[in-house]
Amino acid sequence: MWFVVSVCVLQNSKFRLLQRVDDMKSQMNWDQQALQAWLEESARKDEDAMIIEKYSRQDELKIKVVVLKLSHFVVVCYQR
Length: 80
What we know:
The chain is an all-alpha fold. It has a domain of about 25 residues. Helices cover about 100% and strands about 0% of the residues. The radius of gyration is 34 Å and the shape is rod-shaped.
């Protein structure tokens, strides 16, 4: 009789441990999915930042050209 009880206790322990392992696997899978989603979002943000930087440099160059042209026109106007 005690042997049957011991087997039942061991089976219950095994079942609970297997449940915990499954729970941990599920948690790890969720964590992996969350990490993957975060990495994808981070890559998109990096790409967006690079695009913004590219357009900022282009805008700065355009502003410099306009300022130079304006300076030239001011000089020409004062010379007349």
